[in-house]
Design brief:
The protein is about 30% helix and about 15% strand. By secondary structure, the chain is of the alpha/beta class. The strands form two sheets. The protein has a four-stranded parallel sheet with strand order 1-2-3-4. Strands 5-6-7 form a three-stranded antiparallel sheet, with no helix packed on it. Helix 4 packs across helix 5 and helix 6 packs across helix 7. The radius of gyration is 15 Å and the shape is globular. About 35% of the residues are buried.
Length: about 160
Amino acid sequence: MIQQPNVWKFGDDIDTDAVIPGKYLIFNTEEELAKYAFEGVRPEFAAKVKEGDIIVAGFNFGCGSSREHAPLAIKGSKVKCVIAKSFARIFFRNSINIGVPLLECQDTDRIGEGDHIEVDFESGIITNTTKNETYQATPLPDFVRGIVDAGGLIAYAKEMVQ
């Protein structure tokens, strides 16, 4: 069985305005925001992204503003995760808070647009089945994975009090 490509590749310093342009900040739902995700830098993204696709980028992904619209747009796009060399701190926290998994991996240059990769969140192992390579990402700590698996911090907190 041939595996479909699932990597959307981005470079360094992808800011929150590149993820979701400011003119769409009137929307507050992930479904609505997803319709305009990456419009200015990858106009085809919103129409062609498939559930389970993965965003791969370089350094400083999510820099810019602290608004939650950018991770909401990504969550609404139903991507499996974002893998980058590094993330802006507030973007990282906002993403985890709403249940979007992020992994830091220094080998993102070895992953190409259209490659097919699989991710083991527990170990941080990324397998590139297109190139028959593996890469080591920094795995999320168990409690952070718990937040992501629950769908975000609010859902996680509700689970903890039950």
